Amino acid sequence: MHRFVLTLSQRMAWAGGAMLCLLISVTALSVLGRGMNGALQSETVQQAMPQLAAWLLSLGIGPVLGDYELVEAGIAFSIFAFLPLCQITGSHADVDLFTARWSPRANRWRQMITDIAFAVVLVLIAAQLAAGTASKMKTGQTTFLIQFPLWWAYALSLSGAAVAALVSLYVAALRVGEVMQGRSPDGPLS
Amino acid sequence: MSDLAIGILSFPALLGLIFLRVPIGLAMFVTGLVGLFLVTGDTIVPFARLKSESFTTFSSYSLSIIPMFLLMGQFATLGGMSQALFQAAAGFLGHRRGGMAMAAVGACAGFGAICGSSLAAAATMGRVALPELRRYGYAGGFSTATLAAGGTLGILIPPSVVLVIYAILTEQNIAKLFLAAVIPGVLAAFGYMAVIAVYVRLFPDAAGIRARVPWGERAVLLLRVWPVLAVFLLVVGGIYRGWFTPTEGAAVGALGTGIIAWAKGGLGWATLGESFRATGTSTAMIFFIVLGAAFYNGFLALTQVPQELALWVTTQGFSPLAVLVVVLVIYLILGCMMDSLSMILLTIPIFWPVIQELDFAMVTMAELHATRVAQALANGAVVPPDMLAQIQAALAEGTELTRDQLRALDIRGVSAGALARINTEQVAIWFGILVLIVVEVGLITPPVGMNLFIINAMDRDTPISETYRAVLFFVLSDLLRVALLLAFPIITLFFVS
Questions:
Q1: Per-residue pLDDT for A188 more than 50?
Q2: What is the ipTM of this complex?
Q3: CB-CB: which of A76, A92, A96 is closest to B25?
């Protein structure tokens, strides 16, 4: 079970990373296209080789259409996809200055309550995102330039949010088990 | 209970949760959610906001710069850039007393130019430089303290993740903030080197000596650093020159660094997966805090607490500088307990309205006139000679020009509003850099400086108490620098204005 959840979280992080690389490439390509477009329309190039410049421009060399929208849609997926790994490895930032001296038993309880609260919040986020997706689907709202339906981006992000919610439920269950059995592998789970 | 009271009571509630080790993002999220529920009376508003707010917070074009910079830092390490930087710096400085430690600081500064996070810079340079320092007989605590302090350069020297967040929160120009951080960042690096020079004189046993490296070899080592320089100039220079937006700059930098890492054989499937893991956990951690902060600050704005606080402070007649110093001290104290990003996200929406309302008189109307006249004359404005003489006399006396004189030079946009905008921008940049430094001091201040733990964990032979003792010298240099920047705002604003 643990291996399955961990692998799932890692796969999601991989998908998020792959999306991030894709967005980086699209953005860099857009910068390159914009630069070349500017150069081809410059006076020197237009005078020196007008046909070649016109032909290249007709191929559509220029900034990627709607690169901005693609980044916005994609990066949300990346971040939601990164959440499960952060959850299962316990990588969220916290302040352990005052609880370090508590007894292991007290810390087990504290950790259980925290992770249950985390699970509640992440399930709430996923559920409300699902509702948001449904309402975007109903209104049929599209993005400005590429005009793809906004609910696609929502649905993509929802996949990450849903896995994060499941992983957080698993982590919470694990903590309940630790409290019941009185053992505590305190720290990261991976 | 009034909304204002709920807003004020949310502070102790939030801090209580954080000190109970509730993850900071979660604590802010829950406090914001409960607060919204209390203020609006039911769950409709908070739940309705959640339908789109998590998505819109994460799908931010300007924030997408953060995972890109984080990935770039990973690629830079895989491309051997951290190694190359340290070897080059050690080639030039290593034979001096304390030189290897200075080289570590120099390499950290170089790595900071392509990495936007302190913890990543400290961890990376620690892996590279710590074994070398120990091999050449540098004392344990001295070595770990040097690297922990050097790591903070990762965030001081642009690009910087924390500055990106600050820029977004205060609606300032990221490129200008990056540029403003350059001189303070370089000052920090030299300050740390000076600390090392003093330290090895006080404790001569703390440092060993390494043989001098011949000049030919040094040149070879220096040449290996070119990718770092190329990436930095392309990214920061390109953003500043307006070739591309900060996000585009980050994308170009990440792609370029990735290609270099691949060409050097450092980037394969396994290491790519590891980069995704490291980038992913940091990104998720950061953005969950951003989401929690968005929720909490949304609730706080509804209770009017930031506005009331700003109003209260400005009507008390405190001197602006005194208020600023108090705010910085609060950051120093909080910084000993919390990470810099959480602190910025938590406090800037509260402190910035206060600072914004104070009059630091960075630029007076007469100074604004003087700059605009110089611009107009440089652009070839023509005025009758006698009027020109009057204008120059007025500027020499430091008085404002008359309306007729301004009209003759065709100068527009010198209203009180324009002056206020310029002043606000300058104060925002100055304040941002000061805050950036004091929150970074927190990273190396005992007892809970994060950088100290990261580096100390790499060296099993050194007890943390030794690191604590040695790092105090670096903290002192940080505080001196803050005082310097506080006294002379021009150091920070030199490239900007």
A1: no
A2: 0.93
A3: A92
